[in-house]
Amino acid sequence: MTVSTVNKLVADGTRMILEDNLSDTPYSDEMMSTAQTSRNIQAA
After folding, report:
1. pLDDT of the residue at 44
2. What is the DSSP string of 5-33?
3. What distance in Å separates the CA atoms of residue 18 and residue 39, rounded to the nearest whole number?
4. How far apart are CA 11 and CA 7, in angstroms?
5. Predicted pLDDT of residue 42
6. Which residue in 27, 30, 1 sits closest to 13, CA to CA?
7. Rounded Cα–Cα distance for residues 39 and 24 (Å)
8. How many angstroms separate the CA atoms of 8 and 12, rounded?
9. Cα-Cα-Cα-Cα dihedral sign, residues 29, 30, 31, 33
10. What per-residue string of b and e applies to 1-36 under the rule 16 or more CB within 10 Å gives b?
11. pLDDT tens-digit readout, 1-42
């Protein structure tokens, strides 16, 4: 996961917190898959 991707996720999360717009399930299947792939790459 690149620094710009992490920064975008942080910015999006911060915006959602400030707008009180967080969903009950904030993590999509696609996001969890991306995170798992990132972990696998870093562990290699």
Report:
1. 56
2. HHHHHHHHHHHHHHTT---SS---HHHHH
3. 29
4. 6
5. 66
6. 27
7. 24
8. 6
9. positive
10. eeeeeeeeeeeeeeeeeeeeeeeeeeeeeeeeeeee
11. 789 988 998 999 899 889 988 777 778 888 889 888 888 876
Task: Give me the pLDDT at residue 1, please.
Answer: 72
Locate 35 and state its tokens: 């995170």
> Which tokens hold the place of 11?
């910015």
Q: How buried is 38 (Cβ within 10 angstroms: 0-12 exposed, 13-18 middle, 19+ buried)?
A: middle
CA pair distance 18, 4, nearest whole angstrom: 21
